[in-house]
Amino acid sequence: MSAYAARPLPLPAVYGHDTVALAFAAALGEAMAPAEERIDGLDAVLDPWRAPPAFLDWLIRITGARVEPGWPEGLRRKAVDLAPRLAAHRGTPYGLLLEAREIHGWVPPRFALVVDDPAASSPTTTRHPAPDACSPSP
Question: Other CB atoms closer than 10 Å to residue 51's CB: what's the count?
Answer without folding.
Answer: 17
